[in-house]
């Protein structure tokens, strides 16, 4: 598995296919394989003649595990994606993120606009400006002695997912404490690249997608029908909508 260093942080990534590059940024407690390989995204993009590049975010997958919340600001995680593009010699790319990766994609689009050709903000709605669900429940779920000690339904769902992905629970707790920075309505209104907002119609974690799309000039909304936050990732309607968007983008 290829790796590179961004300062002291070692980051794992995959790079497959040819054509226009698409940088993929996974969600909280996930990794590049769970978020992008297993649901068929890498294969889908390659079949469409695109180059799929997926990073393991710091604290996740095969990348460095860090335990200080200050190491998990969205600015630093967005900086990891820019560093990966620099490592690969990519001046610009299409960026797609899901959930926490959608938040990172939003920050990239605002703070590093010159590196983003088009953006897909998946699994993230108004949480991008409001912060998302209560983080205390998720922190408690990551730090609990066992799954049996977690009673909050959302915290329990994230703890189960983290255990399934073999994640470092201590690193995830630090990540939750560090990454909830938000964007303002004014920052979103200043976005000038094509944006697709994609959220499952049964997603009660992301926050509504339409109000977010309405704040971004020219943004499109993709409703992923009858899917919740966990099941929307690999949905065929999501894939078809993203491919159509990337074909049509400037």
Please outline the helices and strands.
Layout: E1 3-6, E2 9-16, E3 20-25, H1 32-37, H2 41-47, E4 50-55, H3 74-88, E5 93-98, H4 100-111, E6 116-122, H5 127-130, H6 135-143, H7 153-164, H8 169-178, H9 185-189, E7 195-200, H10 209-215, E8 220-224, H11 236-248
Parallel strand pairs: 3-4, 3-5, 5-6, 6-7, 7-8
Antiparallel strand pairs: 1-2, 2-4
In short:
This protein has about 250 residues and is an alpha/beta fold.
What do the pLDDT scores average to?
96
The count of domains is: 1
Q: How are the strands ordered across the major sheet? A: 1-2-4-3-5-6-7-8
* Portion in beta strands: 15-25%
Number of strands: 8
Give the second-level CATH assignment, the architecture: 3-Layer(aba) Sandwich
Give the proportion of residues in helices: 40-55%
The CATH C-level class name: Alpha Beta
- Helical stretch count? 11
N-C termini distance: 33 Å
Strand count, sense and closure of the main sheet?
A: 8 strands, mixed
Word description of this protein:
The chain is α/β, with parallel strands linked by helices and 250 residues long. The protein has a single domain, classed as Alpha/Beta hydrolase fold, catalytic domain (Rossmann fold, 3-Layer(aba) Sandwich), CATH 3.40.50. It is 40% helix and 19% strand. It contains eleven helices and eight strands. Strands 1-2-4-3-5-6-7-8 form an eight-stranded mixed sheet, with helices on both faces. The chain is globular. The mean pLDDT is 96.
């Amino acid at each position: 598995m290829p790796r590179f260093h961004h300062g002291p942080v070692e980051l794992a990534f995959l790079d497959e296919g040819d054509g226009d590059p698409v940088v993929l940024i996974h969600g909280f407690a996930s990794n590049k394989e769970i978020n992008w390989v297993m649901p068929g995204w890498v294969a889908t993009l390659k079949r469409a003649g695109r180059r799929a590049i997926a990073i393991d975010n710091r604290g996740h997958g095969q990348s460095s595990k860090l335990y200080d919340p200050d190491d998990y600001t969205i600015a630093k995680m967005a900086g990891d994606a820019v560093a990966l593009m620099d490592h690969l010699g990519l001046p610009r790319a299409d960026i797609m993120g899901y959930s926490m990766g959608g938040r990172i994609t939003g920050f990239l689009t605002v703070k590093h606009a010159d590196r983003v050709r088009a953006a897909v903000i998946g699994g993230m709605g108004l949480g991008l400006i409001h912060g998302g669900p209560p983080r205390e429940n998720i922190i408690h779920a990551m730090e609990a002695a066992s799954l049996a000690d977690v009673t909050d339904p959302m915290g329990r769902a994230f703890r189960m997912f983290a255990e399934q992905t073999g994640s470092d629970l201590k690193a995830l707790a630090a990540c939750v404490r560090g990454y909830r920075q938000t964007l303002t309505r004014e920052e979103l209104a200043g976005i000038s690249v094509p944006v697709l907002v994609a959220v499952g119609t049964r997603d009660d974690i992301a926050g509504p997608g339409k109000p977010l799309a309405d704040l971004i000039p020219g943004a499109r909304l993709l409703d992923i029908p009858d899917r919740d936050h966990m099941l929307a990732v690999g949905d065929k309607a999501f894939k078809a909508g993203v491919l159509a968007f990337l074909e049509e983008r400037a």
